[in-house]
Structure prediction request, 230 residues.
Amino acid sequence: QAQPMIKLNNISKFYQSPAGQITKKTCGLREASLDINEGDFISFVGNTGSGKTTLISIIGLILEPDSGEIIFKNRRISGYGNALNRLRAEYYSYILQKNIFFDNLNLLDNILLPVSLLREPGSLDRQKALDMLQILKFRSSPQALPDTLSMGEQKKCALVRALLKPSAIILADEPTASLDEESADLALHMLKDENKKGRAVVLVTHSRKYTKYSKNIYQLSEGKIEKCLK
Prediction:
């Protein structure tokens, strides 16, 4: 039997309250265990504060857990920092809640930046990026600077940036935020298409209506993975 690509074993992450206490409300994640296999499409549904962003940040090797272990392709992860940069660059694509861009680079160059971590972007990369923006009905100029765009247009660029970069897993933290219903559906359809090509997708959202292409759906509540909904 093939080993999971990513395995979480009893992962917990705690945050202190302003009074310095750790309570149920400040527990970002509580004893979470999960297997993610190649080609999975997994969604986590939960309200604000349920632990969605904490979970996806730990899966993405961005946030270090306080207890438990992460096994990535049969390797136990330990020591967070530059040592994991190669893994992040080679295996992961990220769609974060906050749209992060380099303000001095135009949108197309921002989109191509993750590809440049692996190789020199070529004309095919540029054309593919433009084609994906067109599918999402992007209405601004690809040469525009990020701070001239609406949040919705920025989100479309963030989505294209994640999908353009070759990776085994796409982590999508509220990828439909700031998008109208039509654009949200287009974005989810693009994630589904990438999943059909064999890429794993992990999506977190506040609404189950955005999980229609998921193979497995989990409920998150107060840092606990409650149950599988699908």
In short: Residues 181-196 form the longest helix (16 residues). Residues 107 and 175 are 18 Å apart (CA to CA).
